[in-house]
Design brief:
The complex is a heterodimer of chains A (259) and B (459).
Chain A lengths: L3 H4 L4 E10 L2 E11 L4 E5 L6 H8 L9 E9 L2 E2 L7 H7 E4 L10 H11 L6 H14 L3 H4 L12 H14 L4 E5 L7 H14 L4 E5 L3 H7 L2 E6 L2 E7 H6 L4 H7 L5
Parallel strand pairs in A: 3-8, 3-9, 6-7, 7-8
Antiparallel strand pairs in A: 1-2, 1-4, 4-5, 9-10
Helix pairs in contact in A: 4-5, 4-7, 5-7
Chain B lengths: L3 H27 L8 H38 L10 H15 L9 H39 L6 H41 L2 H6 L3 E2 L14 E2 L2 H32 L2 H16 L2 H23 L8 H25 L3 H9 L4 H30 L2 H6 L17 H9 L8 H35 L1
Antiparallel strand pairs in B: 1-2
Helix pairs in contact in B: 1-2, 1-4, 2-4, 2-5, 3-4, 5-15, 7-10, 7-12, 8-10, 9-10, 10-12, 11-12, 12-15, 14-15
The chains are: A alpha/beta (259), B mainly alpha (459).
The site of magnesium ion has 4 residues of chain A, from helix 2.
Chain lengths: 259, 459
């Protein structure tokens, strides 16, 4: 079954990516094509390298001194590990939401306004306020915080902090959004809101989400990649992965026998 | 030997109590009893129960036996010993007897003195033996009691926790009492000073000339004790020092923390620590030999008149002294900001500089402010550099090129040489010390409050 995603040029391609932390190899020869305007889910047992691969895509691994990445990763056909590419610029295009909420010790408003400010996305205060409000609304947080935008972001609950971080990431208007287990601290209502947001975002850019919830992967993603012990075991349409996995390890994982 | 033996015995007693009760508890448990506390606690409790009371007895004994023996010697002296019953003569005789007892014989002592000295020696050794006997008896008594009380239900853990808790309270009380003691000694002398010099003159007077005639017939001014020039001098030096130290220290910390190559950091950090360990006298030499002449010739080049001892030279060198202090404080504060915040900032497309100025540095401000204010306290209290480099004459000036004097320098000069503790000149040192204490106390309170306020805003 051919889908549009397989025919259209992928947003991100990774070829033969190996990652080492000092002498231990965390990823072995991973190759994936991440389509534009779709949601790609990474699933796999804990420690299999999902976060590591995610951090390759926005070069956050550069900040870990012992980490070494080899292979080719391109964004819109441009090699992102090319010496001419500025990782700072890259990270503005490829946003990231971390596994653990990490709001800055600043007000809620300043947290969301951080990206727009450093990238000069607004002409004046009114426009900035508009960007902040829109981001908070899309992250399903606006109603809870609209009366206390100047209180510290660190004073929010864990789930609210995670949504604040999502708002902060989307306020920077990335082209790709990498989300590392964004819903692990959220209640079912907030989770549903975030999943809705993910669907909404994928109409304009590509979203990569790491999740431990099969249901969530099945609900939100069009493509799914299954990692196991640093290998990309299977990558394909979400429907296929969940209904007719071709690898026995995938089947074992999604039916709950390994992981 | 005689002073260490009691302590050795004491420790051995405690150790013995520990071992015996622990063993006993272990064998109780081996016998099938369900112990409330583990054997270790039974041993610990017994050990503490021995060491605490016996230690108190020993210390009290050593503290008091001298006085008691003295009394006994005096009571046993023949009546002829006291010509007049004035206290000075008595203590003189006692000292003489004591040196005789110590084997230091001058000339031909009267036989009754020699006899008293022998008695003194006998009493001392008797006291030592008695103390050891008491230690042994009391230790064994307590040990036997604890061993007899040992039972599976005994709450030895709570017991030893209570004892340790008591010890901790005692230690903190000692620290607090020492502080109170120091402050009250200072306060006492300050009040004596204020009886001679009115408070308003001290606090608001613009003249500091603590030259008091030593003899009545000397022609000299009566002395002036207004601390404002001294205070201003201190502030000028401190401001100069901080102007040097704060920016340099903070930039160095930011550089080391975020931008420096790993190798450079590994090389620079130990050097900073060495700098922090240089004695301030050495900085004083540096100020006199290098900085002051350099400033003078530099000033001459600009047509400025720089005093040989200038606030600038002292302040600059003091600033150099404070750099490692501020750097290491700020470095620690910045390093303590969680990695996840830096990752968050970088992932939004910040450069490392932006991440530092917008996120890491602000998050580290409580620690940094605390460090800077501690540096202020150190600058105000610093003595050696200013003694060597700033000057002695109290001049009311804000010009850092002039020679000024500081509170600490004045305290030193007032107390140097022949001093008697009842003239205003000497007492003034204590008043200055009191003011120094109050100012640094105020700064430290401010530091704590600022840190607290930022904490509230940031976490
Ligand atoms: N900073 C690091 N230094 C050294 N090893 C690391 C580092 N980060 C990850 N690893 C190792 O790389 C492997 C993959 O880790 P990674 O965090 O990518 O797993 P993950 O799939 O995201 O797991 P989880 O689902 O628990 O988040 C693990 O074996 C981990 O120990
Ligand atoms: Mg992970």
């Amino acid at each position: 079954m051919e889908t549009a995603a397989e025919t259209a040029a992928p947003k991100i391609t990774a070829k033969n990516v190996d990652v080492f932390y000092a002498d231990t190899q965390a990823l072995h020869n991973v190759s994936v094509d991440i389509p534009d305007r779709q949601v790609t889910a990474f699933i796999g047992p804990s420690g299999c390298g999902k976060s590591t691969f995610l951090r390759c895509i926005n070069r956050m691994n550069d900040t870990i001194p012992i980490c070494r990445v080899s292979g080719d990763i391109t964004l819109d056909g441009q090699d992102i590990y090319d010496p001419n590419v500025d990782p700072v610029q890259l990270r503005a295009q490829v946003g990231m939401v971390f596994q653990k909420p990490n709001p800055f010790p600043k007000s809620i408003f300043d947290n969301v306004a951080y990206g727009p400010r450093i990238h000069g996305l607004s002409k004046d205060r009114a426009e900035l306020e508009g960007i902040v409000e829109k981001a908070l609304r899309r992250a399903a947080l606006w109603d809870e915080v609209k009366d206390r935008l100047d209180t510290p972001g660190t004073g929010l609950s864990g789930g609210q902090q995670q949504r604040l971080c999502i708002a902060r990431a989307i306020a920077t208007r990335p082209e790709v959004l990498l989300m590392d287990e964004p819903c692990s601290a959220l209640d079912p209502i907030a989770t549903a809101q975030i999943e809705e947001l993910i669907q909404d975002l994928s109409s304009r850019f590509s979203v990569v989400i790491v999740t431990h919830s099969m249901q969530q992967a099945a609900r939100v993603s069009q493509r799914t990649a299954f990692f196991h012990l640093g290998n990309l075991v299977e990558f394909g349409n979400t429907d296929d992965i969940f209904t007719r996995p071709s690898d026995s390890r995938t089947e074992a994982y999604i039916t709950g026998r390994i992981g | 030997m005689l002073t260490t033996l009691p302590f050795v015995l004491l420790l051995m007693g405690a150790l013995l109590a520990y071992v015996i009760n622990r063993r006993a508890a272990v064998s109780l448990r081996a016998g099938g009893a369900a112990l409330h506390s583990s054997p270790g606690y039974h041993g610990l409790f017994a050990g503490l129960a021995v060491i605490i009371p016996v230690m108190v007895i020993t210390l009290l004994w050593m503290f008091l036996d001298g006085a008691v023996i003295e009394r006994m010697i005096l009571a046993g002296l023949p009546a002829q010993a006291f010509d007049g019953d004035d206290a000075g003569a008595v203590s003189l005789i006692l000292t003489e007897i004591q040196s005789l007892a110590g084997g230091r014989v001058f000339g031909e002592p009267e036989p009754w003195k020699q006899e008293a000295a022998d008695r003194l020696n006998a009493l001392h050794s008797a006291s030592g033996i008695l103390l050891i006997a008491v230690i042994v008896v009391v230790s064994i008594a307590i040990l036997a009691l604890r061993r007899a009380r040992l039972s599976p239900e005994m709450r030895a853990r709570q017991g030893s926790e209570r004892l340790i808790h008591g010890l901790m309270v005692f230690c903190s009380v000692v620290a607090i009492l020492t502080t109170i003691g120091i402050v009250s000694a200072l306060l006492f002398e300050t009040i004596k000073f204020l009886n001679k010099v009115p408070l308003t003159e001290f606090l608001f007077g613009l003249n500091w000339e603590p030259q008091i005639p030593i003899r009545e017939d000397q022609v000299a001014a009566s002395g002036a004790f207004g601390w404002i020039p001294v205070l201003i001098g201190t502030l000028v030096v401190t401001v100069v020092a901080l102007t040097v130290a704060v920016p340099t220290g903070l930039f160095a910390a930011v550089y080391l923390n975020e931008f420096a190559h790993q190798k450079f950091r590994a090389f620079a950090k130990p050097i900073l620590e060495i700098l922090a360990g240089v004695p301030t006298v050495v900085y004083g030499f540096f100020a006199i030999l290098v900085i002051a002449p350099a400033l003078r010739s530099f000033g001459a080049g600009l047509g400025l008149d720089v005093a040989p001892n200038s606030a600038l030279a002292a302040g600059v060198v003091m600033g150099v002294m404070l750099i490692p202090f501020i750097t290491s404080f700020a470095d620690d504060a910045i390093s303590a900001v969680p990695q996840s915040l830096r990752d968050g900032a970088l992932a939004l497309g910040s450069t490392r500089g932006e991440a530092m100025t917008n996120v890491l540095f602000p998050a580290a401000i409580p620690g940094i402010v605390g460090g800077v204010l501690l540096a202020v306290s150190r600058a105000i209290g610093e003595t050696m550099i200013v003694v060597m480099a700033a000057g002695l004459i109290a001049r009311l000036t804000l010009n850092p090129l002039d020679s000024v004097t500081t509170v600490t320098v004045q305290i030193v000069t007032l107390l140097i040489g022949d001093t008697s503790f009842d003239n205003p000149k000497t007492l003034a040192a204590f008043a200055l010390g009191m003011m120094l204490f109050l100012v640094t106390l105020g700064i430290n309170i401010l530091a704590i409050r600022i840190v607290h306020k930022y904490r509230e805003a940031y976490d």
